[in-house]
Automatic annotation (TrEMBL), chains A, B:
<dbReference type="InterPro" id="IPR002736">
    <property type="entry name" value="CitG"/>
</dbReference>
<dbReference type="Pfam" id="PF01874">
    <property type="entry name" value="CitG"/>
</dbReference>
<dbReference type="GO" id="GO:0046917">
    <property type="term" value="F:triphosphoribosyl-dephospho-CoA synthase activity"/>
</dbReference>
<dbReference type="GO" id="GO:0005524">
    <property type="term" value="F:ATP binding"/>
</dbReference>
<protein>
    <submittedName>
        <fullName>Triphosphoribosyl-dephospho-CoA synthetase</fullName>
    </submittedName>
</protein>
Amino acid sequence: MRRTIAGNAELALLLELAGTPTPGNVDRARDHPDLRFDQFLAGAVGARPGLDAAAAGAPVGIALKTAVAGMAERARDNTQFGALLLLLPLVRAAAATPAGEVSCAAAADVVAATTVDDAAAFYRALEHVEVCVADPPDGMDDLDVRRGAEAIPTLRERGLTLADVVSASAPDDGVAVEWTSGFERTFDAADALRSGAGPLTDRVPRAFLDLLADEPDGLVAARHGESVAERVSDRAAALRDADRETVAAWADDLVAAGINPGTTADIVAAALFVALSRGSRA
Amino acid sequence: MRRTIAGNAELALLLELAGTPTPGNVDRARDHPDLRFDQFLAGAVGARPGLDAAAAGAPVGIALKTAVAGMAERARDNTQFGALLLLLPLVRAAAATPAGEVSCAAAADVVAATTVDDAAAFYRALEHVEVCVADPPDGMDDLDVRRGAEAIPTLRERGLTLADVVSASAPDDGVAVEWTSGFERTFDAADALRSGAGPLTDRVPRAFLDLLADEPDGLVAARHGESVAERVSDRAAALRDADRETVAAWADDLVAAGINPGTTADIVAAALFVALSRGSRA
């Protein structure tokens, strides 16, 4: 098969980036002052060996660590950690199901089958990047994702799997919610992307706005607080049917204000993977 | 090694695309009416299995056929045939030399070692794409690259290698000249890219203009004639020290006129691969 599963995952990262405007995010038309478009290209290429490993059947944790380490090595920043955390179980699920039939049930099975070793590899992956999440819930300080490999003894002691730590360490994070909910928003967005007309990339901005309008962005909430995240979502809802120029102007405003709905972009990338896996073409 | 050889080749294709303006070519800021940016992203991802094969030691011809078939399958057009024809021997050369030391001598060795089987695979690769080159020289009609696999009996009869057919079938083509000249312009451009400051992508426009000013573009000559190709190069020479807006305006003009110096872009991609192989970072 020429359109490989790992290739679909890498292309999903690239098409998310090519779609514009995705307000507040680096995209084809916008850089951030401290993060450039080409770093995301490099991050996608750097993640490829980890995506290949997952497609070949490697455990999710090891494949994630390989993908994140490669991404960080090439991009020299955290460009796509959240997207990779979403993509890895989806890639494993796609590898385990007949071509074109990746499903939320298969993805949920992959999540349910994760182990303590996967969790340990996840914390090792976190050594390669700085992630921005809200403070962990009470009793979870030892498992704060910002602790990296230091957290490993605790998780072994408690027998926590990767599914356990993703959901427990940042329960309100949009990526964690996908892990615990069977990737519901990802698959819904994939359906929307599949049903649109024109090049897949041209459908990215609408998918992004719909997701952002639907739920406050986790990264915005972690960096700027819940009320800012809610205001951003309200604005996205108001702009759903606005013309491209109006959305682009808002994109410029968000970049200028340093407000980056990155979790929403991560879900768009995951949705693009599902769409490509089900037969959509670039 | 996390920054793999095949990853460097794929990233080179992506960074060439990200650099803007590259007048007349699809780049981060410009699509062609019939060829979009995201098709080039898809083409780069599609080529990856062939790049992986070459890095793992597959014969140049087979790896090229795999890369071109994968590119055409994902991009649904000929986005990067010329760039891949340049990259494949360079990838093989990089795989055969210590990290960071790919040289024009090693690349020339790979070219010299190509076989009749490589030539046959090259013609099969051509079945996947439409290429635009000038008419072949006298006595070479049977080996016109536009004949695809039909040419194979003739090349077997004459015992022609891939190096023979690349140089003989389109002797004036800029990609063919690289094959026969030890990739001289590619390595010169790589040196220029390596010596600049700032992100590698930001140095692409200057490398492109310098190469275009230096030699008329083969694709422009094949499509529009030698005199147009020469005028384009004269204009590139005049704009070498122009500001970005002036070059961008010329880029818009060339796209509107359908004049695409694609061979020059191919050489930039190959030069980016050499620069990345020698340690440059995105």
